[in-house]
Specification:
The chain is built from five helices and eight strands; from the N terminus they run H-E-E-E-H-E-E-E-E-H-H-E-H.
Length: 244
């Protein structure tokens, strides 16, 4: 439903008339990434790990941008971090490296003009796109590649005529259930041996990896970028004059 809603925003704002603002923006970002899946079901910012990346953004209007980006990070998870008995018995853990290449559309909610530090210099935005994710194992398991659907939201502000500061929180729904190395795995026999209590089939199902639910990872980033060759970027003296 969330992805559908964001796609609807893309359609809505693409259809709106917007001032031409063609140009390019180059930026760098830093922050954290974290994992959600068969080990961590719902805890946000679980074991965050560093995230470093760069991007090139193409401006099409004061509503729509396309960002081509890359970042490197790590994801970790450990059953021992949780109090569920079945996770304590399962006792699985993992650590992987993560490299992502993405194409993400940014949809601005307010009229936003790059270079203007006096007016139209701030906006929240939604984002949706597609990403290719390379997962590297730190153990003996095989590395692999998967696609992901990025979506999220953020805020950006012109802090100088050509310098933009952004903060965002994004989510990646991957097309793989194997980031954590767990998929449809039963611990029925281990549990019965450890506790001497047979498990009924309905209870045993709670001990499985979520076979039909793929793994996720999320990112929280702060970015700084430089804008140049913008068709609608006026003279800095104009903006300084109207800022007084």
């Amino acid at each position: 439903m969330t992805v559908t809603a964001l796609l609807s925003f893309v359609f809505l704002f693409t259809a709106l008339p917007a001032k031409s603002q063609f140009g390019i923006e180059i930026g760098f970002n830093a922050g954290v990434s974290y994992y959600m899946g068969d080990i961590n079901y719902a805890k946000q910012f679980y074991h965050p790990r560093h995230n470093l990346g760069a991007s090139i953004k193409l401006h099409f209007s004061n509503r729509i941008d396309l960002r081509l980006g890359y970042f490197n990070s790590r994801l970790v998870g450990n059953d021992a971090d949780f109090q569920n008995v079945f996770q304590q018995v399962r006792n699985k853990s993992f650590a992987v490296t993560l490299d992502e290449i993405s194409a993400i559309a940014e949809i601005d909610f307010l009229p936003y003009i790059y270079g203007d530090v006096a007016r139209n210099s701030f906006t929240p935005y939604a984002q949706v796109g597609i990403a290719g994710t390379f997962i590297g194992r730190t153990a003996n398991d095989e590395d692999f590649f998967t696609l992901a659907i990025p979506f999220g939201f953020g805020f950006k502000k012109n802090i100088l005529p050509r310098l933009v500061l952004s903060v965002e929180w994004g989510f990646r729904w991957t097309l793989s259930d194997m980031i954590d190395g767990i998929s449809n795995e039963s611990i029925k026999n281990d549990y019965e041996i450890a506790y001497g209590v047979p498990l009924s089939e309905d209870v045993n199902m709670k001990q499985l990896g979520f076979r039909y639910t793929n793994d996720w990872y999320s990112v929280a980033l702060v970015g700084i970028s430089y804008t140049f060759k913008i068709g609608g970027l006026g003279c800095p003296a104009y903006y300084k004059k109207h800022q007084k």
